[in-house]
Amino acid sequence: MTDTLIDLIRHGQPQGGSVYRGHGIDDPLSELGWQQMWQAVADATPWQHIITSPMQRCRAFAERLAGIHSLPMTIDERFKEVGFGSWEGRSREAIRTENDREYDDFYRDPINCRPAGAEPIHDFISRVSTAFDAAIEQHSGKHVLIVAHAGVIRAVVAHVTHAEPRGLYRLQVKNAGMTRIRHGQYGNMLEFHNK
Known about the structure:
By secondary structure, the chain is α/β, with parallel strands linked by helices. It is built from six helices and six strands. Helix 3 packs across helix 4 (100-108) and helix 5 packs across helix 6 (150-161). The longest helix is centred in the middle third of the chain and has 18 residues, at 121-138.
């Protein structure tokens, strides 16, 4: 049995600075964001298929990379970022200034203290895990790149390592950071993170 390799890369810095972008804000990559993405992949193109979030901060790069290297590409809605509800488009500083307790409560208990209108964390993890498992099944024995978001990568790592959802925001995911999951005879293995 040949192992399946899944590389996940977070999008680079979007236009508009550092704000909460769930799936309600669709800002494109900034010039710096494009540079971060190209530096992250460099000349390496070991992938046989690319899967991307539908959000343009992911999709635009995936389309360009797939076009340059003549790789097949799939857009999967399930890999879009978690919905942040009332926090969408707002900075950490603005949220803390308006309601410091709400901000602190979220990071202490992201399951039960969601921003108003936010996607429930269990629903989010379920949709991402389902998409990830489907990617492994559909691309068995191949090397696949998934272009996605910090939350998506956190959800995949939690799924693979059987980690509790409460710790989801204890994992930093840097812009254009690469994470690799190897699926082999004994299941999934996290090989590296934020490379």
